Here is the input.
Amino acid sequence: MPRTASPRAGSVATASLLTSLAGLLYEWLPRQRWFAGKGRPVTGLSLRSTTELYPGCLHVLVHTEHAGPPRRGDCDTPPADDCYQLLLGVRDVLAPHLAGALIGRATQGPLAGLMVYDALQDPETAALLLERLRNPGRAGPLRFERGVGTALPAGLTPRLLAAEQSNSSLVYGDAFILKVFRRVQPGINPDLEVPSALARQGCTRVPAPAAWFRTSQPQEATLGVLQPFLPGASDGWELAVGSLASGRDFTDEAFELGRATAEVHLALAGAFPLDAPSRRRDRRLAAAMSERLDATARCVPAVQPYVPGLRTAFEAVAALDSARPPQRIHGDLHLGQVLRAGRRWFVIDFEGEPARPLAERRRTQSPVRDIAGMLRSFDYAARTRDPWDPEWALRCRDAYCAGYAAEADWDPREEPALLRAHETDRAVYEVLYEARHRPDWLPVPMAAIRRLAGTP
Here is the structure.
């Protein structure tokens, strides 16, 4: 078995350790799917925190600096600096099954000559992370905590989910899933805060956190959350696309999904303070939406002809007299954020849009924003079929809103101005995302842009 090696905790200065890691991380970090600063060179690296979890594994918070400050209203505004969580394995020789995790061989500093790799891909590290959560305690600035009355079995086999997005997820024996937040911001992460509060409300639509870990250095921040895994569950996107492919209707599922969304919104309204509605708040919301529209139109010229028509949606919101109080919501709701196990829907991933600042993701907002996100998701699913069946999406939208109304006692379709504004804002976001990352999908939100702008 290869001998593991690492500096003992506290035995190597952080600056000295950076000498070994900087060259490797400058090259490796920008290639990762979860790296937020794509398109802007990394101009500086520093280590905010280093902790030895066990011999051969370092927990690192690395701070990155990027060329040039983000410009207000620009469509491409990665942060000027950021902080990422890494678990770095260090070995003399890397086992063959870890070849894909290799970051590189250090050539200088205290790790000179040793292989450095992404330890989250190492089953040994994954197993030890669960042990840390099973036995709450501290490791330097790291704190491992467990929910009251939660039983975590030992010896669960770990596996890293391949579909990594803005975070990394480990599944343990099809019983629990650990989400490790790659991009770390100060404060409690909504994916811990919200499910914990909903569990106290007795809401069973959201898996309650079983354990979590956080750091106190350089500031308090959530690092990872362990929740029950739902084996055999299918996400809403898979189910919707499968129904389309087989020619089956999806309205019954959409109706029940609407009920589930309303149930979660009602529980959120009871778990967190509500804000008072105000014309001033609506005007600020409309102004922010218009600013995002202008920024997107500068980056995606195809949007420019539709800007006047789209802006009328935001102007209508500015003129509203809102009666519904803003509240905590999901923040990024779509078919990929819901799971169906048996005949029951569950809502997951309350982190919100990870690219947005944490404080913004924790603000109260209109529940219509979540509803609009799901309506847009039905449209996306419908567009996977050629020829496109617009009636399928319309039936799903109506069924979803009807299900929501049945549970919440108010119908989103009765607030058309607010619904149109949030759906427009979501479509604008989608246009920018697809233009950057998936140009082949750009026609989907552009079709919505034309419809929402009132263009035949």
Summary: Confidence is low (pLDDT under 50) at residues 1-12, 69-74.
